[in-house]
Amino acid sequence: MKISLGPILYYWTRDSVRDFYDQVAGWPVDIVYLGEVVCSRRHEMRFDDWLDVASKLAVAGKEVVLSTQALIESESDLKMLRRLAGNGLFAIEANDMGAVRLATGQSFVIGPHINTYNGETLEVLAEQGATRWVMPVELSRHMLAELLAKKPQDMETEVFVYGRLPLAFSSRCFTARRYNLPKDDCHFMCLQHPCGMTLKTREGQPFLALNGTQTQSASIHNLIGEINDMRQLGVDIVRISPQSTHTGEVVSMFRAAIDGAMSATEASVELAPYLFDAPCDGYWHGRSGIEQSKEMLT
Amino acid sequence: MSLELVCPAGNLPALKAAVDNGADCVYFGFRNSTNARAFAGLNFDSETAKQGIRYARERGCKVLLALNTFPQTAQWHIWRQAVDDAVELGVDALILADLGLMRYASRTYPNLRLHLSVQGSATNYEAINFYHEHFGIQRAVLPRVLSLAQVENVVKHTPVEIELFGFGGLCVMVEGRCILSSYATGESPNTAGVCSPAKAVRWQQTPKGLESRLNGVLLDRYGADENAGYPTLCKGRFEVEDETYYALEEPTSLNTLALIPDMLRMGISAIKIEGRQRSPIYVEQVTRVWRAAIDAAKRDAAYYAVTPDWMAQLGKLSEGQQHTLGAYYRPWK
Description:
The complex is a heterodimer of chains A (about 300) and B (about 325).
Chain A: E1 2-5, H1 14-24, E2 31-34, H2 47-59, E3 63-67, H3 75-85, E4 91-94, H4 97-103, E5 108-110, H5 119-128, E6 130-134, H6 141-148, E7 156-170, H7 174-178, E8 197-200, E9 206-211, E10 214-222, H8 227-233, E11 237-240, H9 247-259, H10 264-271, E12 279-280, H11 294-297
Parallel strand pairs in A: 1-2, 1-11, 2-3, 3-4, 4-5, 5-6, 6-7, 7-11, 10-12
Antiparallel strand pairs in A: 7-10, 8-9, 9-10
Helix pairs in contact in A: 3-4, 9-10
Chain B: E1 4-8, H1 12-20, E2 25-28, H2 46-58, E3 62-67, H3 76-89, E4 93-96, H4 99-108, E5 114-116, H5 125-135, E6 139-141, H6 148-156, E7 161-169, E8 173-178, H7 180-185, H8 189-192, E9 201-206, E10 209-214, E11 217-222, E12 238-240, E13 243-245, E14 253-255, H9 260-266, E15 270-273, H10 280-299, H11 308-317, E16 323-324
Parallel strand pairs in B: 1-2, 1-15, 2-3, 3-4, 4-5, 5-6, 6-7, 7-15, 14-16
Antiparallel strand pairs in B: 7-14, 9-10, 10-11, 12-13
Helix pairs in contact in B: 1-2, 1-10, 10-11
């Protein structure tokens, strides 16, 4: 089973991003997804910067995939999408059906933001050239098992196993809204929130995280205890979503659990100090996403 | 054809109210999780569907069926059966969101008219044209996230008819791409056809005020002088960096009466009224106002003006009695 590093969902400075990927080159991950998925106003990294990072990671032996924006609204969004689809070197992760249309005929990845809830849908996408799909995060283990029985041959399966869950996209920017700024003049406030802004209920329960136009879970989705089960189900790749701290340690724990250097229980215990918010795994167990199964709490 | 009025039918009386008050089309769903308003006590069985279709047909109104949730593998046969049943009933079009189901419908019934549901999340013409090329989609309902200029650009680059939401509940997130509801309750529009389901809602009077909870999560707390609305997850008050406010959206409704002349000029094919969960009286009043407004704009767009009477009637029906142009008006973003 391989480990992938998902795209950075937050807005970090150019230097932070480049430093981060300099480290990633030495981490035990097999696949790295690069690019801006959330907001077209985030310009610290330009197209050529991404290609530069991609080349360096490829030289370091990583499979590189270029992720595309989830919400495509404007002609300039489409222009960027066409550049990515036509880059000629790296496969893309399509996160919108517009990207699927532009990638048709190439080998590409179906990102977690395309709704694939059944085998028939995966067949349609495989016919366009998709060779891997990332399971929508709301699917349960049970639904995945049923779907895998109907999956097209040669389609790889990737599951989001670590990080704040991407839950929703809007054209409204909730970070700008917090500061009473219009989206078009947002002062790039996202730069000040490298793992999103925690939204709490009126009784102080951390509930969601605001990340510009994206809304995430406040809790950290963590499926390290399910690694062996996933392997038996036929999951090919597990995805770790980069967080602003300790992502390297998280990768090491998952690597150890996959390689059998640590039991799943040991890895869970070792990983616990690195979680910067409460854990959750409810979706995997067919419950509300915010829940954490009892076995993991003890 | 220009600017059809598409009205919600949550049950037979609502369908009749829409037809009687000037809807060009009504849309409805079956009584199961195959549609995105799978609420208890709502929707149609085959007998009421037959009656409704007959009632609408005899009065020159078209009937659309929403099958706009995403079938999960083990229940695929339920959605497939719903497509077959719709064809048997003779609806004018199906409103679909799932790729697999679109393929089934277009292969099995090549002459069946298909619309792309708002739950299909198509916000750009490349996506819409994909559905057109592969499944012959003839109309797409756009998510409530594009500005008017962006909508116009979509219209220019696709042969597919474009339908816009005109009035009713306002989704602040891209439809089909929001799982906030299942994060809190286990059920989302995509999987179960519900958002912030009523069975997960609890109201409790406390010393601090009236509290609304969704599966235990506190969504809001109301003072004695505040009106408490239905606790939709994205319209609660939350704390972000020590400020308590409507962090995602206020309890407000979309109302685009003022944009009808723009929609006509841009070549929009239809306006959708949200609200299959609302009462027949709501459907009657909203349909009547929108019929009058569209007719007025078609008679003379240059002199079209929203009347205070229309706004007053719709204002009473709006969530929180507030309304907004939503994303069509760029500063909303």
